[in-house]
Amino acid sequence: MATNRSGAAQRPNGAPQTKVCQFKLVLLGESAVGKSSLVLRFVKGQFHEYQESTIGAAFLTQTVCLDDTTVKFEIWDTAGQERYHSLAPMYYRGAQAAIVVYDITNQDTFGRAKNWVKELQRQASPSIVIALAGNKSDLAAKRMVEFEEAQAYADENGLLFMETSAKTAMNVNDIFLAIANKLPKSESGGGGAGGARRLADADAPKASSCCK
Amino acid sequence: MDDDLPTDFEVIVVGTGMVESIVAAACSRIGKNVLHLDSSDHYGGLWASYNFDGLQKFIKEVNADPKRQWPVYNLSEKWYIEKESSEPEQNEDKKEGDENKTDDSKAETQKKIWSQANFTAEYRKFNIDMTPKLLFSRGPLVELLISSNIARYAEFRCVTRVLTWLNDRLAPVPCSRADVFATEAVSIVEKRMLMKMLTSIVGYNEEEMNNEFKDWNDKTFKEYLTHKGLTPNLIHYVLYAIAGGTDKMPCLEGVKECKKFLMSLGRYGNTPFLWPMYGSGELPQCFCRLCAVFGGVYCLNRPIDKVEIKTLDEGKRVVAIQSKSKTLNCNNLVVGIDECPKEMLPTEPVETSDISKAVFITNGTIMPSEKEPLTLLRFPPLTEEGHAVTVLEVGPATGSCPKGLFVVYFITKMVKDAESDLQQYAARIFDFSGDQTAESDKPKCLYSLYYNVKDTSVPVQSVASEVHVCAGPDVGLDFDRAVEQAEQVFKKICPGEEFLPRAPDPEEIVFEDDVTHGPEFARHDDEEGDAQ
């Protein structure tokens, strides 16, 4: 469900009104490949060598400004549920974008990443934009997954692909920007759940019962 | 794979049904260290949704091992359509599924002829609920989802209409004031009478019985409605469709049910009800996610073999759980009744009536409408000894099935068995001929599944005070009992703690590391400075 808000985007430079599109983006990949680190680098511009999962912060937002559109990413982290292969399917329901992350120094994580891509292709919305991120590119000396191999796999499967480093920030903003560019910014958005609603306090006119 | 699972927790939750999942979220939310297990490879237990393949596997699993005491029994599955499409090649491969827009050789919107092979090919587009339930727009679950901020994990659709079975046909029930005034089925005089009565029901308050209802304690709701001068049609709407009752429904119960319905009007849609996108089975997962976000550890495919209470040296008791040759310890064990080892349950069984259920997959809605409908239909009992029957019809827009199909759930209290209890109701609204080309005013049933479920919704006290048994799904329309039970279990484990306080929004999360760390003493200085 891409929500187009008619209101003006709040931009400090007072730019003219732009369309705001909101998208759900999920992160997938083996434990310890750097999923949370990528998000923290993107959202907060930070990196911590010994990142512990931040309690309560598995749901972050960040906006990317394109020419005529502001893309607001609602970024979902796995909250560690992938560790014992117990990620709930509701996690990637209705996601319009996914970043599947592996660690370039660990061949197994690349294999797991391929499985996640397969799962998304079968289960997620057909129009989902999938990006493959080979993270920890700062550790190229210990590289176990060749760039060309991953690139070829991404090409075969129509995925965006970049090698990233949450530590040096290399390609982190770029991969989110590439996704933002590729997402359909139409009125109805990419999700199949048009017309479905989230519940919130705001739309609760108290006791407006029609039978009073 | 999961051998590095930690072994010591404050709370271990076994089973990912609705009640267990809410308790897990609540415990984790206030900082308890939680491990959440399930013996199967998916979330939800008896509250799960399955895709078509998952449903077939579930049926096979139950039928293959009848000696294992499944809470589900009498499963009987039937196809009304061909295995393979007998039509000449239409180039309808898996990817297609949607309407044949390109096929202009055929008359406008010719219905697709479905075969079993189509179901198999599109199995992932199905989400079939074992425990389909609605949410009242102002009911306890909606309030809890909003107040805890778990609502952001889920999406909902409004139920678009309430129907009933009146004078041998389907009839829409006027829900809102606008509906009541628009309907031609009710005269002006009747409308006034109805509004007056509904107003007094909204004013009903259990605590102060000094009102309208004080003399109706031992009478039926039908007697009350008759006394109020309502015409038979109006009595039908209020008693069967709005209150979901029968002729024997006690007056105050009927009043309470009506009030619940009326109070939930006007919040989200034209009816008081919401349906979760992708089915009811999503909701336990939303609570599980919150649990995980606050540090809960998740491990599916992890059956437990044995539960023991051990007393340590200082007289402290721990619950020791044997699972895959590993011992897991906790202070409190929360366990779904279907996963609970027998030794923890009281010996005398609880007397309950079981539930009869059915799932039908059809090629059209039971009553055509402009937009895709989402329907609650309430049948009054059609036989002397029968109970009211609840019917939910959900379509592709809810993520329940491929385009062109509807999934229809039937639920009632068991009298004989699911098929005998429900077939006669289904026959009134579906065409079971299996002939998809023949003209008919009813949708064709393509597939049916009847089954009975043990009603395990009555709370059970375990033999140990550290072991908390969670009830299974009840026959009711909503999740209210599950929410109530979960809160009770939570209060026992964490007395005095707040039940699911609001989780922060992303904008409110302050990262400890937003402040650059100085040496330890410098930070203390800062804190003291702040305090002054």
Topology summary:
The complex is a heterodimer of chains A (212) and B (532).
Chain A: E1 3-5, E2 19-28, H1 35-44, E3 59-65, E4 69-76, E5 97-103, H2 107-123, E6 129-135, H3 147-157, E7 160-163, H4 172-182
Parallel strand pairs in A: 2-4, 2-5, 5-6, 6-7
Antiparallel strand pairs in A: 1-2, 3-4
Chain B: E1 8-14, H1 18-29, E2 34-37, E3 49-50, H2 52-64, E4 72-79, H3 116-121, E5 128-129, E6 135-136, H4 140-148, E7 156-158, E8 161-166, E9 169-172, H5 177-182, H6 188-202, H7 221-227, H8 232-242, H9 251-263, E10 273-276, H10 282-293, E11 297-299, E12 306-311, E13 317-323, E14 326-336, E15 355-362, E16 375-379, E17 389-394, E18 406-413, H11 418-429, E19 445-453, E20 467-470, H12 480-493, H13 520-531
Parallel strand pairs in B: 1-2, 1-14, 2-11, 8-16, 14-20
Antiparallel strand pairs in B: 3-5, 4-19, 6-10, 7-10, 8-9, 12-13, 13-14, 15-18, 15-19, 16-17, 17-18
Outline:
Chain A is α/β, with parallel strands linked by helices and 212 residues long.
Task: Give a written overview of the molecule.
The complex is a heterodimer of chains A (212) and B (532). Chain A is built from four helices and seven strands, in the order ββαβββαβαβα. Chain A has 212 residues and is α/β, with parallel strands linked by helices. In chain A, strands 1, 2, 3, 4, 5, 6 and 7 form a seven-stranded mixed β-sheet that branches. The longest helix of chain A is centred in the middle third of the chain and has 17 residues, at 107-123. The radius of gyration of chain A is 18 Å and the shape is globular. The model of chain A is unreliable at 1-12, 188-192 and 204-212 (pLDDT under 50). By secondary structure, chain B is α+β, with helices and mostly antiparallel strands. Chain B folds into three domains: 8-49 and 282-350 and 457-508, FAD/NAD(P)-binding domain (3-Layer(bba) Sandwich), CATH 3.50.50.60; 65-125 and 358-453, Guanine Nucleotide Dissociation Inhibitor, domain 2; 171-263, Guanine Nucleotide Dissociation Inhibitor, domain 1. In chain B, the strands form four sheets. Chain B has an eight-stranded mixed β-sheet with strand order 4-19-15-18-17-16-8-9, with helices on both faces. In chain B, strands 1, 2, 11, 12, 13, 14 and 20 form a seven-stranded mixed β-sheet that branches. In chain B, strand 1 (8-14), helix 1 (18-29) and strand 2 form a beta-alpha-beta unit. Chain B starts with 7 loop residues before the first strand and ends with a helix. In chain B, 45% of the residues are buried. Residues 91-108 and 514-532 of chain B have low confidence and may be disordered. The chains are: A alpha/beta (212), B alpha+beta (532). At the A-B interface, strand 3 of A face helix 4, strand 7, helix 6, helix 10 and strand 11 of B.
